[in-house]
Amino acid sequence: MGTTSACHSTMEQRAGVATFKGNPLTLIGPQLKPGDSAPDFEVLGQDLTPVKRSNFAGRTLLISAVPSLDTPVCDAQTRRFNEEAAKLPNVHILAISMDLPFAQKRWCGASGAGHIQVVSDHKNAAFGKAYGVLIKELRLLSRSIFLIDGAGVIRYVEYVPEVTSHPNYDAALTAARQIAKS
Q1: pLDDT(9) > 80
Q2: Which end of the chain is more exposed for a tag (fewer CB within 10 A), N or C?
Q3: What is the tally of helices (H) and strands (E) in the chain?
Q4: What's the pTM?
Q5: Domain spans of the chain?
Q6: Which one from 38, 44, 74, 116 is the annotated catalytic residue?
Q7: Taking the domain 31-123+143-181, which CATH number applies?
């Protein structure tokens, strides 16, 4: 247990930048912005193989982070990006949560989500820490969207201030279409 708190104490902590049902939360990790280099991370695919951001070098990548696929807003967000992915052939969409890969596989089968890649950050919270979306109090990811161009530069960021609210789908999708064209 000491290593977890020691790790958290060395990482940047941003208190009150997000809320859950109005209650302030602490996010662990940096606040990224457009123009920043996209940090690499390693998460797990549903077959337990490692998936890294660097695997998508040269491609436009939209990352949709959600607390848990088994909640209504996360379910709707992931379904919406799955639907939109079919219309964005030059954009790879990763949906990331702390759900176990087995639960994600079950969710994908039940929802028919076949146009996006759903991955798990449960093992090391590497994505959550690198992108500043790990909720300290809940060990879940805070709802957020990141758009990364083929050169590995972040072009769009949305940290949703209230975890139970939807992201701005239109803004994220407009940015994705623009980046995919260039």
Answers
A1: no
A2: N
A3: 5, 11
A4: 0.92
A5: 31-123+143-181
A6: 74
A7: 3.40.30.10
